[in-house]
Design a protein that fits this description.
This protein is α/β, with parallel strands linked by helices. It contains 11 helices and 9 strands. Helix content is 46%, strand content 14%.
Length: 270
Amino acid sequence: MIDLEQRYETLLLEAPADGVIQLTLNRPDRFNAMTVTMFDELEAVARAVADDRDIRVLILTGAGRAFCAGYDLDDAEELTSLSALGMLDRQERAARALSAIRGVPVPVIAAVNGPAAGGGMSLSLMADIRLGSPSAKFNAAFVRIGLSAGDLGTSWLLPRLIGPSAAAEIGFTGRVVESEEAERLGLLNRVTGPDDLIGQALAMAAQICANSPGGVRMSKRALQSNLEVASFAAALELENRGQALLTRCDDMTEALAAFKAKRAPIFSGR
């Protein structure tokens, strides 16, 4: 079981509903900018969520007016003084943290409550679903500070999400993408009202939690894995294995029994 009493320096953990964990980046005075400590804590929380079979959905958001302003520039000043291997270690630490969020076996909903810049935009891309308030905005700011948009998975995920041409424009110009354009491009699934972002994220989480836990987990695995397979045949092989495994679980039997009895199923996740 995940420990909600655990105190973190840069994060806040809550359980707003059964089966739902809300992870809030909690450095509002710095617009939730990333630090080495935040990377370590994100990775630790992601591992704990992955190990807790009672968790069905993870909601990721930011405290205050921003989602995440990217790497804290006060800390970034030291980067040029690191050795090449020291910088590689720092980069890999950050990449492990974001990869761990993407690798959580349950759906991750990013509730983007404000600016998501640089690494903050990368973090939002780790979610399976992105909802945004009207003040949500995205900025692949890397080129503005002498770095590449090939950072923390952005160059792989963004073209797959919005297409290579739109991704190239955003990456090369470093311009800000406001919420309405983000929704139109597919960077956001939906723009919410100004005050109901978390409410809509929780409503979506409730819809997910009403389904078979195993079915949802295997769906996420198939959707993520089949972004990377080399052929349609390989995708079918993965899907076939997943369906075969799920027919051996209690939830499919329960779903069929509930359908015949004209009642709602009671899923156990077994």
